Please model this.
Amino acid sequence: MTASHLAPRTGSEAMTLFLPQSPFVQHLGIELVEIEEGRARLRMPFREELVTVGAMVHGGALAACIDIGIVAAAWAGERLPEQLRGVTVSMSIDFVQSANGESVDIIGTRLRAGRQLTTCRVDIVTTGDERLVAAGGGTYKMG
Model:
């Protein structure tokens, strides 16, 4: 199979291929759960390496989840830019409550997509009862 057969045809396909190959995403243990037009759901399983104290998930790990959620939501769907690259240009996060010994789901939603800039919202909820842990958003530049 040649490289051209492995080239993604949609943004969702690009995310499906990219996430398992990203060393940082793999370091956090993040997996893609589902992806559809303008929306992506990912999961970061609880691991002792991600705690700050006791069983509390570190805020830095949660902030990284916001960033990865922005990326996934920006790429989610049919849209595929000519160049397969991009960068988060701004990001904010509000910590609502802690995740203690719990896996979290990252729910990214694309709010607006311009020619190059995409605005996204991300909610981080506990897996299972979907208790809101953090919320944030940002702007992503494609291409």
